Amino acid sequence: MPLEDLENQVSSCIGCRVCEEKCPLYLASRDPGFSPWRKIEIAGRLIKGIDVPLEDLLKAVYGCTLCGICERACPTGIRITEVVRALRTRVAREEKTPAKITRMCSNIIGEGSMIGGGNEFWASWIPEGLSLPEKAENIYLVGCMIPFKMPDLGRATLEMLLRAGVDLTILGEEERCCGLLLWEHGLVEEFRKAAEENVKKIKRRNTGRVIVSCAACYYAYREIYPKVIGERIEVKHVIEVLDELVEAGRLKPRKPLKERVSYFDACHFTRYTGKYDLPRRLIESIPGIELVELPRSREFGYCCGISSGVKLVFKSLADSAGRMIIDEARKMGVRKIVTSCPLCMYQFASIIEKDNIGGIEAVDLPLLLYRSID
Ligand code: SF4
Ligand code: SF4
User: Fold this and answer.
1) Which CATH number belongs to the domain containing residue 303 in this structure?
2) CATH code of the domain containing 158
3) Are 163 and 287 found together in one domain?
4) Is 26 a pocket residue for ligand 1 (Cβ < 6 Å)?
5) Whether residue 67 sits in one domain with residue 19
6) What's the 22 CA to ligand 1 centre distance in angstroms?
7) What's the whole-model pTM score?
8) Of the chain's two ends, which shows fewer C-beta atoms within 10 Å, N or C?
9) If pLDDT is split at 50, 70 and 90, which confidence band does 1 have?
């Protein structure tokens, strides 16, 4: 939506700055340049034709994970993430997008993943000797992070689904990024093309059902594809499927894991859908586990800080936001931060490794479950 069409939204800001106290990037930095309120204020100035220094504009526009926590708190209901996307569209039109964001988007458009790599990249996680039918009821999509950094997660997930008798196949080297980042960065036509291509490939396998590991893929297929290309693909997050399989007794977590863990609510999965109890129930199906809530969780849980390219442009800011969560978890004696998004898992794992933090691990929920299945 063009920025000008959001004028009513922007002008309803009362300057209370309640949003600020919920924003993980503002709280991690205490820098007003990253405040959600500042984004709205800048949008207001641009709508009125008042110039904004480029540095301030880029900070406000790209220092945002689009986690949406701020807009839940806003008393006048301003759709702050929509304003940020409109600002990004404007910046892109003026060709002022930061080079690293442009490169990430070019990788998605040209090579089908934010990291690049084409067919070879997408085939890299597939277990040797795997033989699956060409067509099946469900297609398991791994998303960009599993081939990039965590093939074990993809393999463990696939093994559990097959062991439980789920009728599925994969797109393998034909898989491509869901394209959500293109949509988030104002490249709507490029997003439309990527989405149409993905849907075509899925339908070629005679199905309209996908199971995804990535929370961003889940959100894209569930919410954005129907809006932008008018196609509704039935999508389940792998956590939903694993929960059903455990409930039905088709997967049995029997090996006790004596661990104190916390579940981290991924923005695009639990927080956007309100499915807070589901992953927690699945964690508690593992014998021996002790689940404790992080101080900020569920509706107002922090974002991990990496999403929407923030780590590319403001690396230390993104890491400070992720570190806040790790620190809070450590204070509570938590040994594992359990995620349901490979991108969040990557964010926490990379901070833990870089800062050499002992005694705590980031683990995606399917991998945790896998350790308990005999
Ligand atoms: S909470 Fe809403 S009304 Fe208050 S400053 Fe933030 S955007 Fe404006
Ligand atoms: S969407 Fe998230 S990161 Fe962006 S301003 Fe709102 S709370 Fe901050």
Assistant:
1) 3.40.50.11810
2) 3.40.50
3) no
4) no
5) yes
6) 11
7) 0.95
8) C
9) confident
37 lines ligand 1 (CB under 6 A): yes
Indicate the helix (H) or strand (E) that contains 310. helix 310-313
Structure tokens at 73: 């708190």
Confidence at residue 87, expressed as pLDDT on a 0 to 100 scale: 97
Alpha carbon distance 76, 241 (integer Å): 37
Distance, CA 20 to ligand 1 centroid (Å)? 8
For the CA of 15, the nearest atom of ligand 1: 5
Residues 210 and 291 grouped into a single domain:
no
Nearest residue to 256 (alpha-carbon basis) of 292, 280, 284, 294: 284
Residue 124 shares a structural domain with residue 228: yes
**Of 94, 127, 159, which one is at a domain's C-terminal end?**
94
The count of domains in the chain is 3
Distances, alpha carbon 218 to alpha carbons 10, 117, 141, 275, 282, in Å: 29, 22, 10, 13, 18
Mutation to probe ligand 1, out of 6, 10, 76 (largest number of atoms < 8 A from CB)? 76
Residues 50 and 85 in one domain: yes
Closest listed ligand to the CA of 44? 1
For 171-189, write each residue's pLDDT tens digit: 999 999 999 999 999 999 9
* Ligand 2 atom closest to 267 (CA): 2
Whether 63 is in the pocket of ligand 1, judged by its Cβ within 6 Å, is: no
Residue-wise pLDDT for 7-60, tens only, equals: 999 999 999 999 999 999 999 999 999 999 999 999 999 999 999 999 999 999
- Cα 99 to the chain's mean position, in Å? 22
Same-domain status, 281 and 333: yes
From the list 10, 72, 95, 15, the residue with the least C-alpha distance to 44 is 10
Residue 36 Cα to ligand 2 midpoint, Å, equals 6
Residues 239 and 104 in one domain: yes
Could you tell me the residue range of the domain that residue 61 belongs to?
A: 3-94
Q: Is 23 in the pocket of ligand 2 (CB under 6 A)?
A: yes
Nearest Cα to 214, choosing from 366, 24, 25, 373?
366
266 and 332 fall within a common domain:
yes
From the list 38, 66, 35, 20, the residue with the least C-alpha distance to 304 is: 66
Tallying the residues shown for the chain, one arrives at 374
Cα 178 to ligand 1 centroid, rounded to whole Å:
31
6, 11, 12, 14: which to mutate for ligand 1, most atoms within 8 A of CB?
14
